[in-house]
Automatic annotation (TrEMBL):
Family listed: Belongs to the DegT/DnrJ/EryC1 family.
Taxonomic superkingdom: Bacteria
Alphabetized GO MF terms: pyridoxal phosphate binding; transaminase activity
Keywords: Pyridoxal phosphate
Protein name: Capsular biosynthesis protein
Coiled-coil ranges (or none): none
Natural source organism: Pedobacter steynii
UniProt-listed CDD domains: AHBA_syn
Length: 413
């Protein structure tokens, strides 16, 4: 067999939606984007949604909207994809990294220790689609002794009057927290629609607004739509209607809009998500757990607890008592057997650029511990029963093989 890691879900509904867009003769931002935004609002129960061309673009936009800049700090987990910190650096601010818990989510107590007068925002990352501990994070940023440290530098910051909580929900569309969509737990949630995500637009993302009073989320939506289009007061679709060519630039914006041809893919997928695509992911995750639970080396990932449930974006297999090198050998053996896997993620302090900025892996021991033992297995709706059985059998075989090799090496030494 040759089993890919995460191919996009492309069925006839997706093809038809894309063809409909092509036949419409309108492929840049227009009605399909608006329809996708409406579907995201329905899925999350949030107040407004702005589709953009990537998660990274959405994060850069929102940090700029909040006025984050040089001299400011934004708290992020060390265990995440680099974009979580790069968006902060692109604003001229400093990412302050914290360690994670054993469930891959950021440790609220570590966050507390890093808060100071420079802290403007926290970006909590829902690794593998598991919501962070949002009750603790929300309580933390509202504590009087924490709020009093917050120094407002803009009117928007003064309006909020506290640290901004952003959810990096690149993995977690459809996740649940306290019986409601997890996206309702933060001020701003940003989804990724990258090619390997639960819902994809090939490349893309979506900013979801859940801002408290005195903010008007619809007013902020209107501003952000302009912000994503160079600050231009009319988009191309509006300009195309009759003698409507004249436009103005109202402020310095970005060019980060999503085109309709991309939105069409996500639109067809999101309409199938709750009733089909997401449940199929859950079934695969449960079957992995059932297959590996008898193995004494298996560390079962947290996918569902009393107050939270993941979106089953990844299946983060972890192997007890294994080293990074042994984990890599397991991966090599799986690849030989035609199974493509991944690792989520290489902690940022291990990456060349972040090392050059002075971040050190030794300061984040649990991030390294989880990374060294983790292998992300294929999980997607079109994974067949035969492929799933093949994967589980191969994983058990490969882990046992590497453990036996390790025993022989120890005896020989």
């Amino acid at each position: 067999m040759n089993i890919p890691f995460s191919p996009p879900f492309i069925d006839q509904q997706v093809i038809d939606e894309v063809l409909d867009t092509l036949h419409s003769n309108w492929i840049t931002s227009g009605p399909k984007v608006k329809a996708l935004e409406s579907e995201v609002i329905s899925l999350t129960g949030l107040k407004a949604a702005v589709c953009v061309n990537s998660w990274t673009s959405g994060a850069i936009m929102m940090l700029n909207w909040f006025g984050v800049g040089p001299g400011d700090e934004v708290i992020v987990p060390a265990y995440t994809y680099c974009a979580t910190a790069l968006c902060v650096l692109h604003c001229g601010a400093t990412p302050v990294m914290v360690d994670i818990l054993d469930d891959f989510t950021m440790d609220p107590e570590m966050v507390r220790k890093m808060i100071n007068a420079k802290t403007k925002a926290i970006i909590a990352v829902d690794i593998a689609g598991l919501p962070c501990r949002y009750e603790e994070l929300n309580a933390l940023i509202r504590e009087p002794e924490i709020k009093v440290q917050f120094v407002s530098a803009t009117a928007i910051q003064a309006g909020l009057g506290r640290i901004l909580l952003i959810c990096d929900a690149a993995h977690s569309i459809g996740a649940v927290y306290n019986g409601k969509p997890a996206a309702q737990q933060s001020d701003i949630t940003i989804f990724s629609f990258h090619a390997v995500k639960n819902i994809t637009t090939a490349e893309g993302g979506c900013i979801c607004l859940n801002l408290p009073e005195p903010f008007d989320n619809q007013e902020e939506y209107a501003f952000l739509k302009l912000f994503s289009m160079n600050g231009q007061n009319k988009d191309a679709f509006a300009k195309s209607k009759g003698a409507n060519w004249r436009y103005d630039i109202l402020f310095k914006g970005f060019k980060m809009n999503m085109p309709d041809i991309c939105a069409a893919i996500g639109l067809a997928q999101i309409r199938q998500y709750v009733n089909s695509l997401l449940p199929l992911r859950k079934v695969i995750s449960m079957r992995y757990c059932d297959a590996f639970r008898p193995c004494d080396w298996f560390i079962e990932p947290v996918m569902k607890e009393d107050n939270r449930e993941a979106s089953y974006h990844l299946f983060p297999l972890r192997i007890k008592g294994i080293t990074e090198a042994q984990r890599d050998r397991v991966i090599d053996e799986l690849v030989v057997r035609g199974i493509n896997v991944n690792v989520h993620f290489i902690p940022m302090p291990m990456l060349t650029y972040f090392k050059s900025l002075g971040y050190a892996m030794a300061n984040f021991p649990n991030s390294y511990k989880q990374y060294a033992a983790e292998i992300s297995l294929p999980i997607y709706p079109q994974l067949s029963d035969a492929e799933l059985h093949y994967i589980t059998d191969a994983v058990i075989e490969c882990v046992q093989l590497v453990k036996e090799i390790n025993k022989l090496v120890k005896v020989a030494s």
